[in-house]
Every structure is written in C-alpha cells, then in structure tokens.
Amino acid sequence: MLKSTFLKAVAATALTFSTWASAQAVDLQFYFPVAVGGKAADTIQELTDAYVAQNPDVTIDAVYAGSYQDTVAKAITASRGGNPPQLSVILSADMFTLIDEDLIQPFDDYLTSDEDKKWVEGFYPAFMENSQTGGKTYGIPFQRSTPVLYWNKEAFEAAGLDPEVAPATWDEMVDFGKKLTKKDDSGNVTQWGVRIPSSGFPYWLFQGLAIENGAILANADGNKTNFDDPKVVEALQYLVDLSTKHEVMAPGIIEWGATPKAFFEGQTAMMWTSTGNLTNVRDNAPFKFGVAMLPEKAQRGAPTGGGNFYLFKGASDEQNKAAVKFVQWITAPEQSAKWTIATGYVAPRAETWETDTMKAYAADFPAVLVARDQLDFAKAELATYQNQRVTGIFNDALAAAITGQKDAETALKEAQAQADEILSEYR
C-alpha cells in the first residue's frame, strides 16, 4: 500500500512538472521555403520534431511558407502586422532588403563566447559573403546551394560522346549540344542539347555565365550594379545564341520548375539547375547521370544561392536565445548531413563533410561533392538594397533579350539606368 501510494505521488509530481514545463516552454515560429523537388519539407519537419523532443522547454512551429518570394513576402507582412516569426529561412540575397526594412537583427549579440565566434568562422567563406555586412552577421547559412550542370550519360553515349565527360567550356557546351540535339523526320526537336531555365530565378543561373566571363553583377555593399558591363552583355548574347544561333536550346522562356521533369523525360540531355535538386534527380532520373561544375569561359565560376536563417526583431530575449540554440543545433554535423543527403543542398560547414556519415555518402555518390568543390570559384549571389525590385528589373531585361524584344546591349543598359535610379540613395 505504501509503495503504491508513493508511486502515485511520484507520478502526480511528474505530471505536475510536465504541465509546468509545458506552460513555461519558449514558443518559437519559423518560416521556411521549398524551391526544389524532393524531401525538403518533410526533412525540415523531422529535424524540428527531433529538436523539440530533445528540448521540452521549447516549442517550435515550422511553417512551410511556399517559394522564396512567398516566404519573404509573408515574413515582411507578418512583421509589419506586429506578429513576426522569430526565425525565417529567406534568400541570402534578401539580406540588404531585410536590413533596410529594419526587420532583422544581427546574431552577434547572442554569439558572444569564443566558442560561438569560432562556430561562425566555421561556415564556408563563399556563403558568408551574402550573410555578413558592416562587420555583423545577419544570416546563418543553411539551405545553401550553387547551380551545377547535370547530364544524361545514356544520351551522351548515343550521340557518340564520352558519357563520363561533361563540357568544360562554353564552346564545348555548344559542340556537345549540337551532337545531342535530335529531330524527328518532320524536323521537330525531340531532344535539346541543353536547358538553362529563364523563369523563377533567371538572374541566378545567368549569373553563372556572367561570373565565368569575369563579370560581377553587384558590389559587396549592395548599392551598385554592373548590368551594362560589356562582359555581362557578352554573357547574355551567348545565352541568346544557344537558341537563335546554335539551336541547341529551346527558344523563349524556359520554366524553372519544369526543368527536372524535362530532363527525366529525355527532352533535354543537359540542364543547369540547383544542387538542391540533386536528391530529386537521383531518386527520379530513369538513366545514369553525371554532375559537373558549370563550364568556363574566362574562368570557372558560379553564384552561391539558397537561404539563410534570419533572426527577426520583435522577439523576447528568451526567444532569441532559444532561436540561436536551435540554429546552432540544426546546422551541426549530424543534422546538416541528414539535410544534405535528403536534398542535395551543400552542407555549409566543412566539419559536416568530415563526419563518417558524409564520407560514406560521398564515397557512394561522388556527385554530392561537385557543388561543395565549386565553392572555391563561387561568388556572392546578386544582392542589393530593394533586391526584389532590382532583380525584377534585371530579370525583365534578360527576358526581353531572350524573347527577341530587345538586343542584349540595349536591354542591359536600360536595366542599369533603372537600377541606378533605385540604388543611388544608398551610396
């Protein structure tokens, strides 16, 4: 009887403590976007649930907010309405916009120990270019990427090309593309040589061409663009020529979202898209495929891309501390490895690649290393103040040239003039 009474008392105490702990839990909400196919949303939820299970003093509501554009719009709207999330994964390129809107605060106030500072230094420098400004850290790399080239090895073999060798230069991509473009008896193209999307994120994939030609689209301070640089004009002319002159790519605007499916279905033998599509391609391509760095012109090069964690203003000190701890946990090697394997996004810290998990994965699937190694040649994604407006202007200029409404030089000169008008006040 005494033992039974004692056990009931212990159980009641535990229940009371559990109820109290739940009542005292720090509530966090974070928004996250999904811009690629595959398991990204499910994996985010699994990781969040795992953290909450290990940390019962925190509750986290992970809200799938749509595309990157949807997510930043929702975060801004919620903040202006007085109900901001504590955290959000938003494009690294939107850092200046979020600062200008006075919506985010630097992580530095909560990363004060030597260990914390060493943790920040552990992220790849290429990713930190779009994460720090004015000596402060505003973004923590998480859902980060570079574009890479995917090729269909079976299509290469059928065209008489070495299935293990991707085009390494712009000229080679044209030469390969001509051999890979197939037509039926009526002259209709059944397989294009290459597909570079020009919707969704046209500036991002185009930026790969610009960097390879030795051009930088914007300065590090986010207040000056170089859209009319002759090297940028030359890069855009090359993109247009792939369709109009060389006839190795479909004419007109090419859809971002439909590109992996077109690749799977044999409508194109090569495609440019995010490494964040890597697991999607591995799971769904019905043929052997390869992954390579983007081909070079004057140099190798690619933009970094993807999303950072941002710490929003309006949270309590307790919420901020809890949010930072969660970010440190989800970017730690074990969790980061799970995220990379599930999606193809680049683990943003070198230590993740040294884990037994990632070493084994890379040994089995070497393609996962391509985007990481390309970071040695990568530059910051186009990022400016009023980034949505500026990139919108640039995207319109690209579309005008691609659809033949304007020549490349005119389109880019007009875009530069409009960008100057917007950014001059920030200089």
List strands and helices in order, with pairings.
Layout: H1 2-24, E1 26-32, H2 40-54, E2 58-64, H3 68-80, E3 87-91, H4 95-100, E4 104-105, H5 114-121, H6 125-128, E5 132-133, E6 136-137, E7 139-145, E8 147-152, H7 153-158, H8 170-180, E9 182-183, E10 189-195, H9 202-212, H10 230-244, H11 259-264, E11 268-274, H12 278-284, E12 289-292, E13 302-303, E14 305-312, H13 317-330, H14 333-343, H15 350-353, H16 356-364, H17 368-374, E15 378-379, H18 387-402, H19 408-423
Parallel strand pairs: 1-2, 1-3, 10-11, 13-15
Antiparallel strand pairs: 3-14, 4-14, 5-6, 7-14, 8-11, 8-12, 9-10
Helix pairs in contact: 2-14, 18-19
Subcellular location: Periplasm
Protein name: sn-glycerol-3-phosphate-binding periplasmic protein UgpB
Family: Belongs to the bacterial solute-binding protein 1 family.
How does this model look, in words?
The chain has 427 residues and is of the alpha/beta class. It folds into two domains: 24-144 and 306-368, D-Maltodextrin-Binding Protein, domain 2, CATH 3.40.190; 147-303 and 386-426, D-Maltodextrin-Binding Protein, domain 2 (3-Layer(aba) Sandwich). The chain is built from 19 helices and 15 strands. It has helices spanning 2-24, 40-54, 68-80, 95-100, 114-121, 125-128, 153-158, 170-180, 202-212, 230-244, 259-264, 278-284, 317-330, 333-343, 350-353, 356-364, 368-374, 387-402, 408-423; strands at 26-32, 58-64, 87-91, 104-105, 132-133, 136-137, 139-145, 147-152, 182-183, 189-195, 268-274, 289-292, 302-303, 305-312, 378-379. The strands form four sheets. Strands 1, 2, 3, 4, 7 and 14 form a six-stranded mixed sheet that branches. A five-stranded mixed sheet has the order 9-10-11-8-12. It is globular. It starts with a helix and ends with a helix. This is sn-glycerol-3-phosphate-binding periplasmic protein UgpB. Residues 368-425 form a coiled coil. InterPro entries: Bact_solute-bd_prot1 (IPR050490), SBP (IPR006059).
